[in-house]
Amino acid sequence: MDLKKILWDFFFLLFETGSHSAGSLLRQSPQPRHTLHAGPRLSASASSKELLMKLRRNTGYSFVNCKKALETCGGDLKQAEIWLHKQAQKEGWSKAAKLQGRKTKEGLIGLLQEGNTTVLVEVNCETDFVSRNLKFQQLVQQVALGTMMYCQSLKDQLSTYSKGFLNSSELSGLPAGPDRDGSLKDQLALAIGKLGENMTLKRAAWVKVPSGFYVGSYVHGAMQSPSLHNLVLGKYGALVICETSEQKTNLEDIGRRLGQHVVGMAPLSVGSLDDEPGGEAETKMLSQPYLLDPSITLGQYVQPQGVSVVDFVRFECGEGEEAAETE
Ligand SMILES: *[C@@H]1O[C@H](CO)[C@@H](O)[C@H](O)[C@H]1NC(C)=O
Ligand SMILES: *[C@@H]1O[C@H](CO)[C@@H](O)[C@H](O)[C@H]1NC(C)=O
Ligand SMILES: *[C@@H]1O[C@H](CO)[C@@H](O)[C@H](O)[C@H]1NC(C)=O
Q1: 156 lines ligand 3 (CB under 6 A)
Q2: In order of start, what are the domains of the chain with their CATH numbers?
Q3: Per-residue pLDDT tens for 94-133?
Q4: Cα of 116 from ligand 3 centre, angstroms
Q5: Cβ pair 124, 173 in contact under 8 A
Q6: 201 burial class (0-12, 13-18, 19+ CB within 10 angstroms)?
């Protein structure tokens, strides 16, 4: 898969530009094997797991290869590092040069909804490995909460919906939220310090709606935040702002389907119900083939529901900033 390849290349880059170069590693005299089993005895599986984690932290290579390296070198960490690097050279894992400047491409999208306010945030890190770390997820949570507090402090416009974006530097300056000191920038620095990877507070979007509007949402690859029940984390997120004249019971379901469509079909604008139906390459949302039933357009799906789509926001983790805003 593409993601795997990117991670793979990245790990190589890490290794290659790391403090110990191939030469210095290879010049070191081999250590006697099994020295790491000294000290308090752990069960065989626990200690080999620790070794594996350590080797992976040291080198950044994949679990599979680190495991193979440890097996080949009888559990000797130093030898395993050397073996990994030799393999990397031999098998040409060095396609990484073109990845420079793609430092923080992984990470998570966070979606937080409270009453009539919805926020979508993106925080980036260098590897998918770190994005699955609880401390990284807590950072995403702080960013979502900070954005929510900022948004709730804004004056409401009661007649229509409002939507806004925050860029990286604006996010950095926001207070971190109810239970943390300082700004989001301080939280970012703490997380970078703890996890040892570069990270970016990439962007945030917020939407506030008065009655008569509804914000549908969807997060792809969703997982619940560890400690905030209404925060959802994933790799893609969408908000779809709808206007509806009647109180409908299935709005949540329709909103989720609209969000799925936006994530899957990546429209660039809403368009109008009068537009001609478009094909696969269509970028106007209402004219696109409906993701869940391509025999009709999204407009044909949504119109009989008594709901009109007025706007949307789509975040894809790691995408270029220029594609972030609609229109
Ligand atoms: C972020 O937004 C602020 C306010 O709109 C602007 O002054 C600043 O230049 C932006 N920063 C970046 C890095 O785009
Ligand atoms: C971290 O990432 C940011 C944004 O991509 C970049 O501007 C900065 O130089 C990076 N810092 C380091 C230490 O690589
Ligand atoms: C959002 O809800 C709050 C509390 O229910 C209300 O005071 C506020 O006016 C609402 N905002 C908008 C934009 O309707």
Answers
A1: yes
A2: 2-99 (1.10.8.10), 106-323 (3.30.479.20)
A3: 433 333 343 678 999 999 999 999 999 999 999 889 999 9
A4: 6
A5: no
A6: buried
